[in-house]
Amino acid sequence: MSAQRSTAARPLARPARPAPAPRPSLTALPGGASERALRSRLELVRAPLQARSKIPFLVLCMSILGAALLCALLVNTTMARNSYEMSELRREVSRVAQDTQSLQAQVAEQKASLPETARSLGMVEAEDPAMVRLSDGAVLGLPQEEAGQ
């Protein structure tokens, strides 16, 4: 058993890698960039400009915030005013509805007493009433005289 452990713990031998092939040396081609051209491309970098002040940005943010708050206040005030107007109009509608109901009750009461009032004035109900057509003034139906007159 101990013999098995000693062989299992050893790493297996790896085959040796072949040596890399030597690279060819680099040479400048005729007509390529010269040292002088390379130097002209390498220039000093300008120093960065001074950082801008953050005050204009803060003023912009504060003005946007102020405008948003002003708009919210304006909308809230308008909604409150419209709410008061709506409640006043609802009260007026309920008053008009009560007036309409009372007038309808009076009309219904007078409709019920109309035949009695007409009889007390000596009127009788016509059996064949005559009608006048307003478009041309023609009389439709013939009025009949009562026997009592």
TrEMBL record:
Residues 1-16 have a biased composition (Low complexity). The chain crosses the membrane at residues 55-75. Residues 1-32 are annotated as: Disordered. Keywords: Membrane, Transmembrane, Transmembrane helix. This is Cell division protein FtsL. It comes from Cellulosimicrobium composti.
